[in-house]
Amino acid sequence: MRFSAEQHLxxxxxxxxxxxxxxxxxxxxxxxxxxxxxxxxxxxxxxxDELLVMTFSEKAAAQMGERLGERLQKAAADxxxxxxxxxLLETIPEATVSTIHAFCNRLVSEFSVDLTGDDGQPLLEPGxxxxxxxxxxxxxxxxxxxxxxxxxxxxxxxARQVLADSGEPVPETLPxxxxxxxxxxxxxxxxxxxxxxxxxxxxxxxAPGYGDDRLEALLLTMIRQLRSLPQYEDWxxxxxxxxxxxxxxxxxPAVQAVFAELDRLASPALRDLEAIFDLPYVARTExxxxxxxxxxxxxxxxxxxxxxxxxxxALSLKGPERWDAVHEVGRRLLELKLPARSFSGxxxxxxxxxxxxxxxxxxxxxxxxxxxxxxxxxxxAYAPEAEYLFARTVEExxxxxxxxxxxxxxxxxxxxxxxxxxxxxxxxxxRIDFSDFEHYALRLLSLPDVAETVRARYSEMYLDExxxxxxxxxxxxxxxxxxxxxxxxxxxxxxxxxxxxxxxLFTSKAAAYRTVTAADERPEAESDGDLLLLNTNxxxxxxxxxxxxxxxxxxxxxxxxxxxxxxxxxxxxxxxDLTDKEAAELTLVxxxxxxxxxxxxxxxxxxxxxxxxxxxxxAVGKMRGLLDSGYRPEDIVVLGRSxxxxxxxxxxxxxxxxxxxxxxxxxxxxxxxxxxxDSLVSLLVNARQDIPLASVMLSVFAPEPFSEDELLxxxxxxxxxxxxxxxxxxYRQAGTPLAAKVGRFLDRIAGWRRQSHRxxxxxxxxxxxxxxxxxxxxxxxxxxxARLSFLTRFLKWLQAADPGDLRTLLAVIAEMRxxxxxxxxxxxxxxxxxxxxxxxHAAKGLEFKVVFxxxxxxxxxxxxxxxxxxSEEQGITTDYFDLKSGRxxxxxxxxxxxxxxxxxxxxxxxxxxYVALTRAEERLIMMAGTNDPEKIRQAxxxxxxxxxxxxxxxxxRVRNPLVLILSALRQNYPRAVDEFFNDATAAVQAxxxxxxxxxxxxxxxxxFVAVQTDNADPVExxxxxxxxxxxxxxxxxxxxxxxxxxxxxxxxELKRKLxxxxxxxxxxxxxxxxxxxxxxxRPDAKRRDEAKQLGTALHTVFQFLDLESFRxxxxxxxxxxxxxxxxxxxxxxxxDAERVKPFYQAVRAxxxxxxxxxxxxxxxxxxxxxxxxxAKPLPGMPGELTMVQGMIDLWYVTxxxxxxxxxxxxxKLTASDPAQLTALYRERYQVQLDYYxxxxxKAMKKKVHWKQIWAIRxxxxxxxx
Length: 1265
Fold this sequence. Notes:
alpha/beta, 51 helices
């Protein structure tokens, strides 16, 4: 094989101890590594037993070993190298080729006698076991819960009283292994009584509300993150060693970053401020005809003109005085109320000119130091990163830190106590988990004798995928101290931050090492480390590489990010055998207008297909064209960011008859055949189960499978009082041929149940599958090869898991279901003849001729604002907490950390997108579906500060891959992207990327999906196709009414069905009404109406409203405090709190209404959010019942025993007077209130006196009956 100059350099370069190779996608890094190892072996530079090769996965390790063996076999066949190669074929198994985990486990096993605890005794016995992921997660959760239980018991009031009298301090250390929960301190001394009191305060602060679920989740996250760090207890002690001081505050990286931003903004902002007064719009505000907002704006600008020059002096100061001086400048500024951003009309052009100058530097500066920008909309649009940071002085913030510090310490100490208990539980069972491999290996390598023994074995180490290494893994590598190491990776493909990969390890080495290229002369002196670049891509055609470069040279240019996509990262084409014609394209599928109609508030949308479904259908048409042109199904892959995107594509591809393989999108036991096995096991464990019994009777497990009609006969010809599982054995005595068939079925089930007591689970299931010919049955179904592959993998898993008995197997299945375990444990790589659907993460390291990058209009997962954050680089921070009010408020340092984390998450999303796009060899097809292309266009434009200048600050706020891609293309090809939005019918070239729209939102649009029927040619785009697809989704079954009758309904569903029934009666008198029990809506959970979100938020406010307290303090500021308190307690999120802020008057009206007087009267008992269930007969189905469920907003019992119920409604209705409004609400909600009243009356044995609705928007109490 001929190697390029850069590849040859990576193979032969040998002038330093440490060699880092930055190998871009498709650069042949594995081939280079294999060749370098082989040449080292053939020349005698290294022996096989001196070789250590570590990879990221077991699969990669196996492939590395196989390819190295193949390379040596090739050398043995070459006369030039045969003599050296043949002996190596015998000794190459002595080389260590494994994952880092496996290597560490080998060290632990070999040196287990040296792995000792505080008492000098070995921690592990020979033959220790390894916990799998599920077992480890359960054991860790139990350790956290038991630790909290012990601490709560210790902190009980009686126990604390005894401890308070003793004043005994807690220890400063804790044992390496401990099952007891003995409090200790990481920092300053504290008495046991104070420790426990602060623990209770911490639990209340970090997990407000009832229950410990939130606190448990925080502790579990903290423990897992800590265990990705080496010597994590020492790291924590160092991080919290010193309380914050004013001097330390101003030296904090967050504070330094704030000052750097102010230094950047100050001079241009002051210059812009002077220029603003020369603008026509500001001059207009001085005229008498200026409105109130314009005059207030002028007054604020005049104050800013007088005050802001003092900022120069403030920024020139040093230490804490600098911060406080800026704080004082901000305090002197007035609130800035900006005019509406409407650039039409007489003032439009002048106002736009003002905004363009004001928002660039002046707006963010003013908001950062004063928080006086009143327009949140303007801030979100023009200064999204600006945050009010100078609200408090340095001393005030230091005091805030002193208040929250004990709570933070108690949280961290609780996490370490739970971690110690988890370790003790594992060691008591002589077991370890995967993270123990690394920690115990590091502990062993800290022993000089062990380290020297291991170090002497190896002379060369090779590490693949170094960008995905965690800090604990890197610590092990450094402790090994092997003489020469060769690390290869691509930081642009680091996509495992959620597994605590640390790409900073790669970038820091790349920055520190000397870059060596093929053009350089060989350095005379050795360096500590050299960086080599492999930037030539031998996978993809030039057009795809150019497209990737065009996108990421823009998106990865933020200096604050982890990568700057410069020439050292640019992809250079290495293949010349591929055509570039339409190699890269982006298709925006616009959803039909008639499926995107607005719904009534609270109503669920009824469309069958989502925008993502239409996108997938359009992709099917493209796939058929590719197959017709000569591509095979296995040449094509669909890559989605999430399992949800993959699931949509998988469903549409299967629905349209395409051969599709997508095992990693299937959840455990969600495939049909494995669900049948699950039903059979359930039946063998417990015969008194109707659904499993019916499933098995209809299946191949029955000697003669029953039909639906036969099951219905059994049901109808037996006592209707019997449950189905009792009716089946009773029918055995009927004396009919069907009864004999039932007898044979029951005998088979009884025989299998007897066998379950003699055989192992795997033996029993294998025997049953063989007896029933289950494999032949699976082979007769569509996608037979995939089904048989799943079945084989399941049986192998079953044999390895050895669950003991059938009941345990069911428990394991239930646990794996609850954790969302995927069928990847049973997955096969055999996708021959099928289009593959997989996540972008799963595609890492793979390549395909055709790649569909799917779901690009689906938003990234938004970064959550955690109360507490740990960062290896940034330390530990938390928001401030007021012990008296129980409220959180923002910490400037914590806000900076949150933004830092959000930026890193955004960088990870970009790298994931890069991985997906670089999998393509010949065709890259980017797909996005939307119902509003205008929003996409506006989002793209919002990324630009001017017509041609993209803003990195705005880009960081984008959560949509499509917007990012189009923004990057617009930076380079503005006319093309503008034409793409303006002309929905044209195919536009943006560089090498072809942009096109499909559908354009027209009513009735349906993509070409070509369903393959059994006896006909493919059916193309017709109304019949829509009906066919709907039929597949909702097939006809015997006795449809009974089959569709739901086992339970909600009151809201009943109300909605009645609304439609009444509407149908009005529209078509000839059409008989559909009984509301039999056609329940199928809700589309993906679409949440804004009105529904507002209604939910308002219900929450009224649910948690303390009437008596609010009546004492009914001001608007008190209302805002109430919302802040609800947000802090996680009762409202921040978005919902913003939604309900305008409803102060509505809440106040309720608080001082007549019904509020009744609720707060002495002796009244009030019940809120009360669930209920009623058993109601199904109309037209004698003897059949359905369960009606609902939630009563509020009901009460007065002192004299009268009962009233209130339902909160936020509908936006138009009525001329209260009587008409009452009639409208009665028509809408009479059914609901009647059910609510019936539930109360059955429970209380007493009539409901008042059935009323509180109309929130109208501030009126309406009596319905």
